[in-house]
Amino acid sequence: MSTAKSTPQDLLDEGFRPEQFGSPATWASTYLGDLVAEAGRWVEAQLGAAVYGAVSSDTYAFDCCVKAEVQYASMVLWRRRAKFMDGAAQVGLESTAYLDRREMLAHAEDARQNAIYWLGEAARALGVDPPAISAGGGISVGYTETGRFPQTSTGPLNA
Question: What is the crossing angle of helices 60-92 and 97-126, to 10°?
């Protein structure tokens, strides 16, 4: 396991503050430090340990790894922020809190997409195939029934 390329300061530079999460006592050291380590493990798992460990700090690939880690951590922090606000909204009975929550979750999805983009940039800069991370893993099935005859089934897939 290599050390994460990003630092807690990178997340502070993104604008996250302890007050947004109930002011945890160990905000910068433990709270953000653990999250940065998790983000580093995610990028390392996607690129491969040998490739990730070989990235030197004065390269474009390093910058891309840092951005991927920061965006991954931002996704987690936006989700945590939404959960924190859910608890506060229930206590305060705020009627518009769902709008704030929806925006926070949209920011989290944007950060996830950015993390995937920067991960792909890092992979390309390192000369390896970008990992196949898709927005969804589900399957979609459908059918179309046409012709001059009446519809034989109103249920899905002619069941």
Answer: 170
pLDDT value at residue 13: 92
**Contact in structure between 38 and 9 (CB atoms under 8 Å):** no
Q: Are 68 and 76 in contact (CB under 8 A)?
A: no
Query: pLDDT tens across 36-95, in order?
Result: 999 999 999 999 899 999 999 999 999 999 999 999 999 999 998 888 777 665 555 666
pLDDT at 18 exceeding the cut of 70:
yes
Single out the residue of 129, 1, 104, 87 nearest to residue 112, CA to CA.
104
Q: By the 8 A CB rule, do 4 and 34 touch?
A: no
C-beta neighbour count of 32 within 10 angstroms: 23
Between 66 and 17, the more confident residue is: 66
**DSSP string for 31-80:** IHHHHHHHHHHHHHHHH-HHHHHT--TTSHHHHHHHHHHHHHHHHHHHHH
Closest to 102 (Cα-Cα) out of 123, 78, 134, 122: 78
Contact 122/58 with Cβ under 8 angstroms?
Answer: no
Structure tokens of 158?
């002619």
